[in-house]
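User: Predict the complex with flavin-adenine dinucleotide.
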Amino acid sequence: MKQKFEVIVIGGGHAGCEAALASARMGCSTLLLTMNHSKTAEMSCNPSIGGVGKGQLVKEIDALGGEMGKNADYTGIQFKRLNTRKGSAVQSSRCQSDKKQYALRMQGIIASQPGLVVVEGEVKAILTDAQGVSGVHLLDKEGILLEFFSKSIVVTAGTFMRGLMHCGGETSKGGRFGENSSQGLSDCLRDLGMTLLRLKTGTPPRLLRHSIDFSQMERQDGDENAHRFSFSPTEIVLPQVPCFLTYTNPETHAIIRENLSRSPLYSGKIKGIGPRYCPSIEDKVVKFPEKPRHQLFFEPEALDSDWIYPNGISTSLPAEVQEAFLRSVPGCERVEFARYGYAVEYDCIDPRQLGHTLEVKHLPGLFLAGQVNGTSGYEEAAAQGLLGGINAGLRAFSREPFVLSRTESYLGVMIDDLIHQGVSEPYRMFTSRAEFRLSLREDNADLRLRPMGRALGLVDAEDFTRFERRKEAIDAGKAFLRKKILKPSEAVNSGLAEMGSSPLNAPQSLAQVLKRPEVGLEDVLRLSQTELPLAIDKETCETLEIEVKFEGYIEIQRGQIDQLKKMQELTIPAAFEYARVAGLSNELREKLGRTQPKTLAEAARISGITPAALTALVFHLRQKGHPPVNSVI
Ligand code: FAD
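Assistant: Here is the predicted structure with flavin-adenine dinucleotide placed in the model:
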């Protein structure tokens, strides 16, 4: 086999799949190295894709030409739009996935991708030379040490580096149930000058479907008009199935409380830091003692599987305690276990060592993406994998790097947060992390990112033409709604009254009438007895309606984004001496010196930086002859 590749990707998880596909689709000879190829694209935990904040990431991955959204559509067994009672900025899509089909389909896509080769084995070392990275050492399945060479390497090792699994008093090495941990890689990264952290995450037990009495639970069906993730013409092909809702109760909580000392979390055995937002059931019972019950969603793992995933009850209590507390839950009196819940501790890197391209600042050609950067979740991993793979490919072709800002994407928000703030617990995406979320909606991810995906060579001509037609229809629709006037009349006002809307006293454009909260796009078209100039599908209708309805707010955000861009333009010289800036605390001087922000905007996002500190910085920069910046803060 050829030993030299333009890009090498280490790890076949959600980050690794996107990284390898992006690089190969851009035309780079790409090698994907993974410990067990039959586990490529495995869903280690919940059998679902998307969710609040995460759905936005999946749409962005798709808009840029990644695979996750398409794969989720073809293998989804229940689709739901979340937060539909809240504003459009925070609505997100989620689907229940057939986890077997999800992994199998992705493995098929990888197998059929020209320019992409997969080799099984464990990467033991990353090799370097004077220019940066140069290759890897891989111990293959037969125990033979192989050498592969590349100047662009993407590490996506997930939860595997020195992974340690805990269930009650039992501890074993492993990155995920039934799979070995990766032993040499984190030592190698440390030797290459990287700072490592130790984090942990947990998963619930898996239960056997036939032993559960679903009649005692609340049935939860998906949406009737399911929203797909992909902007390409995918289809929902698998049968759609329900989930079930049940609750813990005081008896469940009492059993957990009595056995807390047997939880490795509470006995002090687990040293890694877990996610606050996704607590184990032990944590929920301790931290929210006033709550008499906690929700549990029972989700099917796959259509042809007897396994049920009880979402909301991740635990690492001993097996017999898991059995006891679960059997106190309605519907689970006779429940049988397919696998017990466990927690995993693993090494990850401090992401503040990375630049916006996910390349290590001090080691050219080494990119890291996914859970290894301190995040949690398939979507966060896949989005980083895509960006890391793109930049590894661009580097191989000596092309300009690809960077996304927080004003144009959730992906940009995540990378910016990671590289400036670092992590103190596994990082997951929330809509609240994006300051411009009304502009960064799911529905307009293609308007924001599709042209970039096309320029990178990841979106094909057919998909791009479809995108251009959609954009044209939205622009024509906006112009039409602004121009077309609705005159007051008896019919119009009685129509408005039926919608609970006040009468029209003077002529108004359809766009103005549409700004009323109780009036929708279809309503204004019906009242004016007109049609849009170009026929549009329901997704395009939705985008058009939001863009017109919230035009005012979107304009305000655009102003704020311009302001931020101005801050971005104010550069801070390299190796800037913060010790000389009067009015900065020693702690902030140390933090800024360590982080070395390139612009004022980057400095503003470092945790603990106050407006007063920024003013001191601006004042100092101005004194030293930097461009006038009065207008920016
Ligand atoms: P992974 O999916 O972990 O993939 C890593 C890949 O790297 C694997 O293919 C592995 O074989 C390969 N690899 C590692 N080291 C080497 C090496 N040296 N050589 C070759 N290949 C290597 N996410 C949530 O959002 N919510 C949760 O509640 C949640 N709970 C979890 C519980 C558990 C027990 C686990 C294990 C994970 C959990 N996750 C959860 C996290 C979720 O699984 C990950 O976020 C996601 O899978 C990360 O994707 P990734 O591509 O970064 O890594």
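Residues 461-483 form the longest helix (23 residues).
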